Amino acid sequence: MTPPASIHIIEDDADLVEILTENLSNSGYSVTHDRDGTQGLERVLASPPDMLLLDLMLPGMQGLDVCRAMRASRKTANVPVMIISSRGEEADVVSGLELGADDYMTKPFGVREMVARVRALQRRMSRGMEKGSQLCFEELSIDTLGHEVTVHGIPINLTATQFRLLQTLAEHDGRVFTRDQLINLAIGDDVYVDTHNIDVHISSIRQALG
Fold it and tell me: pTM of the entire structure?
């Protein structure tokens, strides 16, 4: 039997943690949590989960710093991260996505939507692992099975969503997409994704590739 996907939550609101843990557990996930950013990062680095739900305003270490540290570590560079925060200004969302988050939910949010987004993010990751082929373009190499990208042989850290976007563009080299077409191909038309978030992800990919 396949073990349940593991989700780690770093959130200092005990009531919210309890609600999320109950609903995600009922949906078949194995859930752990920390309320401190420093402790949470240590646990994630020691035993990477299949997904991380991350608050921004935390004791010990702020959420953006946790996200930055995760993306800098090879062990956790590809762990999907969903930010859950009461900071909903555009600048906050852009900062989170540019630092490597795959999705961003603003509090308060509906638990059913949260669970749906978790499932959608998990599907994105699974789609990125399906084909198991190597895509090579001069100095750029994309390993769709190992979920790795290298430029001149140097590994490049991308989030799960960024990897799917890059893989889709590489598989359709030379084709021009609208934002909606790219979302449908890379992520799926059954998942709501803000087109502005796609712009941020594409910008981050360009910066990462140099």
Answer: 0.68
Q: What is the 3-state secondary structure (H, E, C) of the chain?
A: CCCCCEEEEECCCHHHHHHHHHHHHHCCCEEEEECCHHHHHHHHHHCCCCEEEECCCCCCCCHHHHHHHHHHCCCCCCCCEEEEECCCCHHHHHHHHHCCCCEEEECCCCHHHHHHHHHHHHHHHHHHCCCCCEEEECCEEEECCCCEEEECCEEECCCHHHHHHHHHHHHCCCCCCCHHHHHHHHCCCCCCCCHHHHHHHHHHHHHHHC
pLDDT in tens, 133-180: 678 887 888 888 777 888 888 888 888 888 888 988 888 877 778 888
- Cis upstream peptide for 108 (omega within 30°): yes
- Residues 121, 77: Cα–Cα separation, whole Å: 15
Identity of residue 177: F
Q: Give the Cα separation of 32 and 21 in Å (integer).
A: 8
- Domain architecture of the chain: domains with CATH: 6-124 (3.40.50.2300), 128-209 (1.10.10.10)
The answer to whether 93 and 104 have CB atoms below 8 angstroms apart is yes
